[in-house]
What does this fold into?
Amino acid sequence: MIKVTIYGAAKEIGRSAILVEDQDTKILLDCGLKIRPKKPTIGPEGLNEHTENLQSIVISHAHFDHTGYIPRIVRDGYEGSINMTHPTKDICAILWRDHLKIEGERHWSEDDMYDTLYQIRCHYYQQKFELADGVSATFFDAGHILGSASILLDWKGQLIFYTGDINTFETPYHDTNKYPTLEEISFIISEATNGLRDLPNRESPNKSFIDAIKATYKRGGVTITPTFALGRGQEIEAILAKEFIDTNFNIYIDGMILKMNNVYRRYFHEYWVSKKILEWCSDNRIEVPFDLRNFIGVSRNLADNLDTFRKMIVSENKPNIIVSTSGMLEGGPIHSYLNHGAGNPKNLLAISGFQVEETIGRAILDGERKVNLFSWGKKKGAEVEIKTEVRQFQFSGHAQRNELLKMLNAIDSKKIVFVHGLESAANSLKNELKNNQEVYIPVNKETLEFQN
Ligand SMILES: [Zn+2]
Ligand SMILES: [Zn+2]
It folds into this structure.
């Protein structure tokens, strides 16, 4: 009998942690922290009691809700291997260091982080690796962000498929996600993020985004695009690169996106990104899309006073596009651009992704027009009135509903556990399944039992 206990991300998004065990083996899939606006992060509850007899940890991808709690497991005494892809390791190191700056040593210390890095083992897609006696894993490209993987566990002859976060869309850097269709799978553990909504295919948000940028320039404004540093940021860079190559548009990149760009550059070959994007780059004699001559990384190499420099970018009457963190406007250089640019109704604030409740980005989308932003030189920040046009473009890094159902119906498995999504999203998927699959929608800390 195999037991599965969901320690986080049951009926929620955040702090993914799934323990798979039988009487003599324990493997942990993912180990994240949940980020909550204006509140401290929380980890998976109750996981620590297993730390000492865990045999192995396998990580699907670098996003913080899947990796933020790993150094804590090491601090609590875990000495085994932590398995992930090569890009995931590099991205984790950046995210963990950034987290120390934001939240301090609340869950783990800098030393714990370095200890953790020593325990990481890296693997490529489609190469089986051993986790414990009779238990091995294979990574499948999940198409979600650089290095993202779904995990196929071979558990003493039984197969278990954990999707991690998957993207069924073809995006600028990645083909659609891969999954096993030939083998019989004992049970699937699947994300359910977009279980409630079907999103338009990628061409339509891409086109409306580009049209909006051009219209903004025509009326004498600049486009300000807050975005996540990892994944979405690079995707938007690629969309802009393809559209504005050989034009006079200036594309300013600011904030943590620049650090993540370096990781993308390091892994820019066919193991990790799609052939299409490699061909496009080689046709245009560049290494990565953000190497085009009209891409400008905003850093201290350009100006001593970055606030003044950003003010110039956002105020000058030129075809300027700003792509900056943070994606939900909770911090980062985007505040500087809005301080100086939000008062101009000709400008466009182009929100590029889902905005969590209680974030500044969400408030603006909900119609709030006076927000408190960080301001250079003013400790308490400043109230800024948003007079720009505000639009949201529906890019999502997750499987859309129909495609997710197609995958779940194509995999030969009679049992599905839904995680990483609201209960309503999981229920909506459950009602549409075709093959009489048995569906589990557990709560946190619930243990499910699967007979051989
Ligand atoms: Zn993710
Ligand atoms: Zn996630």
Notes: The chain has a mean pLDDT of 95. The domain at 2-197+397-450 is CATH 3.60.15.10 (Metallo-beta-lactamase; Chain A). The longest strand covers residues 378-385.
